[in-house]
Amino acid sequence: MATIRSYATQGLATVLVNLIFVWGATQWAAYQLDFQEALGAPWVTVQGYPVYDPWMLFPWWLSFGTEAPRVFDTGGAIAALGGVFSAALALGGSRPAGGSNKNHNNLWLGPLGGCRGYQGCRIAGPFRRDPGAV
Asked: Where are the domains positioned within the chain?
């Protein structure tokens, strides 16, 4: 059974992945817009490079989306990829070590059990699966 620490680590990792992608999309949009003054003051400047708050992509999108739709469509896609990668991370992290869930009955009845080419079958009890099935 998974521990609270593993759930917390997995949750933190998904939040960080989302943050990185949204922040990357914000910085990419700012770069594409040549860091214009209309974007507002940067959060911090690192070696002459302005760094904006991660969430600034969204108010910019509302303000300047009609003037530069391709920039914000691409920036939105970059930010959305963070959600896709976070979901993959969460689903991958939910798989128990060893590749099988030891809490379920994975008894395979085989061809003599009546499954005959199906991935699983119901025979007077719980769903039984072929261990070699994907």
From this structure: 4-103, 105-134
